Backbone:
């Protein structure tokens, strides 16, 4: 990557950033292209291998078996057959394509190449002369195009396609789909925009296209795409969408159309739409530098994290409307916490990190990955959660597919693009010379900084162990920024065995230096088990505690705690969990072992004057907690994240 | 009422039972006709006066203003205008008509007579030649009749009409609408039934018609109506309705079509539909005496009351699907607790009481009336709650009407028919000679028992005071049964000053005697304030307590407790509430006054290791609780039923 060429003449996987902020004037950090980072760890990379070997092929079969590819093929082959399935099913094909495209950055898999080529052929063939692309509204419903922006997700599908096309272009060097995306975006730009330009000034019902258009602008330098993104963001907030009755679930707030985004005090409505919108708005800020927009993003982020977020990082409390609830409304068993909302949160946090360089966004990105995205995907890579409850009686199990299958391919594209989130470089290349280490995972990276390609080697058993060893492979002067997670009180840092000042949790520790080959940086993140309690307004968690260790949230399942009902045990504050590494359990995990107090609760009527309290303590019981991401991969039973203290 | 004539030749208001079990072979008790009971109390009767003077006229205006009457008039007058509003809006007209009909039992109000006559004319005129009646499917949609029993509520509307027609017949003596109802029922009977009879063997999506058909059978002796009710109940449970995917909100359980009713272990799905179904099935039992059906009812009732019911008696935890949730899923702020579900519960309990004579059903009928129905209706009689939360921040306020306006006229018909629930007589007239006092409210009654019309006078300030004085006005030998509520530990009973054996809470105390004129029965129900706690599985109520006194649930509102945030106070167990009668507050209430402990909870982050606990105790605060039914009738603010203990 150089400062003069935005996109290489021939795209190469090693120049494929997930978010290409190279020319974004207001980016503090730039994600390092995923082709420049090779994960070699034993936690994330095995999951990515499953993504490549199991998830992507099985999802392709689902796309075939459920008619999602048929919907394109019937147009390309002019079969006259009808569209099948839900009107926004094209988006699943696009998300799968994006996942496959990022995957092509790392391995030339002929089978995957073949699937991608077929999907690309179908998409290209299904595009209309005028650039329109949506198989639901092609053939039988052409006269209804753009007739219901509120409900019909045409721009949402377009956004997912544009993202896929950009990924495809970046990792294959082919302009085939980028051209389709440009024609589609040009068509949309011709239809929608300010009324003063003779265009349709309408609000879209399901955000997603905003970040796609900004990325298309980054990929093409076509300013109209950025302006269109800005229009679609700015047009919101004037109650064009939603029921008149504010108490209706599908009110303006559901669609984030109740207030202009710069005035919104709170995250509201459909959780996935909300975080897709804020991700797009943050992308817009990275290009425009409008401080009012960044202030709004920070305000919304603070509201989300202090009033609306599960301890898992999951978002969206309500089944009704797949939506954010009232402040502090965070039921555990009925948590909606859609996997897609967690992925959207990661996307938003990645952009806030690029905009600010602040560690808290990388903290939440990591926390959300481990505790809100990974739980949505089975260890065998074949089944998925749509909702991710924090308490269960054994009835909530992952499924291979859904009628509304947004989550499965969203997981796939996130996992495929994951190396692109690990490292960043500083914004003002040439003046500021910095490498940011955002995520800890054993890896090899080759990072352009200070006019050089610097090799950096990371050795760690994170997230199981807090020891991280970084080896510089290239002599250069730059500043190495290491994220010190908010939880890492007592972290220590040394360079070539020489202790550095105590790093501050919740910030990036910076080491500026003339680095020499084989310089060694050692970071130690304390991995003590943390007992976490909730704000008192979270009513279900009164008197209860959750356990975390490092970046991982833990949970209790019946299968590990057969002797007791989980509601009948307490975790006294003096009970200190021990860790135990079990390489054969759940793909290899560190479990927590501890004593619990067996304190059965009186089980009387639903309400009564005498019924509550505890029987006399009935002795100690051995308890085992596993990482929450791994739950529901064995026999069904109770799940509890929060136990009585 | 005599044992030979089922319905008098000319119906009279004083012979108008709400549930006419006179000839039901399996009724243990018979409700005394509402025309035979005159409420003279200062609690219920003033609300009923508001129902007559304010609620019924204002609802009539809403029926006009929202086009609900227009939908009939356009057919009668052949205006060619389209139907307006929601497809089941006819049902609101019918429920209003039923309310007006019961009201005519007590007062000949010319204005109300006029409204009833107009509505009756419109309904009669809108009925088709073949008996069909539904304005949504008349004129523009005739070809779609009965095409979507799952969603379109045609039988639900028919059921509400039949109930209204029976009430109209019983209180006016007119057969005008009963004839319409018979023609409608005959039409339905010709269309639906066992396939073996060449009829359409379909399951209805929204129960209601079952109890209506049984009542029509009682009013007409036409056995086909009872058989049709039985068919509609028995056809359920074979997964004809609902999504294939059981995790879908609109699955078979949502429609109570997942299991035959005799096999159902749990109340499930849409709460109103569930209790309307069980009310109808209990009506069926009263006629058939099928023990399997009664067993199922008792099993479902036990499940409902021990796993699914709010402390208010409210039913239906989930907004999503207006449905019962999982066992113990009872969130306070997000309680759905539709007013209609509480009314349905009263109807079901009244029928279980008739079937068994067990006090627990009358207990719950009363508790539901005071704490789950009355909160749904403002003190001024003009606004309504659809949902009845037990915790609020001041945003949930009653509304004058709703697009889906099922609750307002349902409250009206319940209040209008209320005298019909106060007394019952024993089943085997001539052998068992009994009067049952189900509800305590100052009243005069004239009750046919032991071959005589016995006058009974009830003097009490219940629910504010537990002293009840009954005076017998007619010399006769009969057994007087007095309900001793489950909560009335320490109740005492005397006759003419002579102490009787200590009555057993949760049962009817029986006094058999040759009663003389002016014999005096004194019942004292202790009115100590009860501190109630929840089953430990109700997570939001952990460590919290609610207050009840007599039949009334109490609640705390900010307007009475301005000095503190309600979450920042505790109600220590040694704090003993005093009562204070405030005749000018909220129509006259007894409030509870007590000391609370000001214990602000630390308000830190959403989650943290150190943030929970209490600041040092900051002294006593004065707390005031009002009856929950009266909440949200003053300035908006916080509401809490459950306070920290």
Residues:
């Amino acid at each position: 990557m150089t400062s003069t060429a935005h996109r290489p003449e021939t795209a190469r996987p090693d120049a494929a950033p997930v978010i290409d902020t190279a020319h974004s004037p207001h980016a503090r950090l730039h994600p390092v292209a995923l082709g420049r980072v090779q994960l070699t760890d034993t936690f994330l990379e095995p999951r990515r291998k499953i993504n490549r070997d199991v998830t992507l092929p099985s999802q392709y079969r689902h796309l075939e078996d459920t008619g999602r590819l048929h919907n394109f093929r019937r147009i390309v082959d002019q079969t006259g057959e009808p569209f099948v399935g839900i009107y926004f099913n094209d988006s699943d094909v696009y998300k799968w394509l994006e996942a496959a495209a990022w995957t092509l950055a790392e391995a030339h898999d002929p089978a995957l190449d073949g699937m991608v080529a077929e999907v690309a052929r179908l998409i290209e063939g299904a595009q209309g002369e005028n650039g329109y692309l949506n198989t639901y509204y092609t053939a039988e419903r052409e006269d209804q195009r753009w007739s219901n922006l509120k409900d019909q997700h045409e721009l949402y599908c377009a956004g997912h396609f544009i993202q896929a096309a950009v990924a495809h272009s970046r990792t294959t060097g082919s302009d085939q789909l980028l051209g389709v995306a440009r024609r589609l975006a040009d068509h949309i730009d011709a239809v929608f925009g300010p009324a003063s330009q003779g265009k349709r000034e309408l609000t879209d019902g399901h955000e997603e296209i905003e970040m796609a258009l900004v990325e298309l602008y980054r990929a093409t330098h076509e300013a109209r795409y950025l302006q269109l993104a800005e229009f679609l963001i700015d047009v919101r907030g004037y109650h064009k969408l939603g029921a008149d009755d504010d108490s209706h679930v599908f009110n303006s707030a559901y669609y984030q159309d109740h207030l202009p985004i710069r005035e919104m005090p709170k995250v509201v409505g459909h959780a996935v739409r909300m975080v897709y919108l804020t991700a797009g708005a943050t992308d817009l800020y990275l290009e425009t530098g409008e401080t009012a927009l960044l202030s709004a993003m920070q305000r919304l982020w603070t509201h989300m994290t202090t009033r609306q977020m599960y301890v898992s990082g999951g978002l969206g409390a309500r089944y009704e409307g797949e939506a954010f609830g009232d402040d502090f409304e965070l039921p555990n068993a009925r948590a909606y916490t859609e996997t897609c909302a967690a992925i959207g949160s990661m996307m938003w946090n990645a952009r806030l990190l690029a905009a600010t360089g602040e560690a808290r966004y990388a903290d939440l990105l990591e926390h959300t990955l481990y505790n809100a995205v990974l739980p949505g995907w089975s260890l065998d890579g074949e089944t998925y959660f749509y909702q991710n409850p924090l308490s269960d009686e054994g009835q909530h199990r992952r499924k291979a597919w859904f009628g509304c299958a947004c989550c499965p391919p969203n997981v796939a594209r996130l996992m495929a693009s994951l190396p692109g989130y690990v490292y960043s470089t500083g914004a003002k290349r040439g003046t500021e010379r910095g490498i940011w280490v955002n995520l800890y995972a054993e890896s090899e990276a080759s990072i352009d900084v200070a006019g050089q390609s610097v090799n950096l080697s990371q050795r760690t058993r994170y997230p199981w162990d807090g020891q991280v060893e970084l080896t510089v492979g290239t002599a250069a002067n730059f500043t190495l920024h290491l994220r010190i997670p908010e939880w890492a009180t007592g972290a220590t840092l040394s360079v070539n065995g020489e202790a550095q000042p105590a790093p501050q949790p919740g910030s990036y520790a910076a080491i500026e230096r003339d680095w020499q080959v084989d310089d060694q940086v050692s970071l130690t993140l304390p991995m003590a088990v943390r007992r976490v309690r909730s704000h008192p307004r979270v009513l279900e968690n009164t008197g209860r505690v959750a356990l975390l260790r490092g970046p991982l949230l833990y949970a209790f399942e019946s299968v590990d705690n057969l002797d007791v009902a989980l509601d009948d045990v307490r975790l006294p504050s003096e009970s200190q969990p021990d860790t135990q590494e079990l390489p054969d359990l759940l793909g290899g995990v560190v479990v927590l072992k501890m004593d619990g107090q067996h304190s059965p609760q009186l089980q009387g009527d639903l309400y009564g004057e005498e019924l509550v309290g505890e029987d006399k303590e009935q002795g100690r019981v051995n308890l085992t907690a596993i990482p929450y991401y791994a739950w529901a991969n064995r026999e069904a039973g109770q799940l509890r994240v929060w136990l009585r203290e």
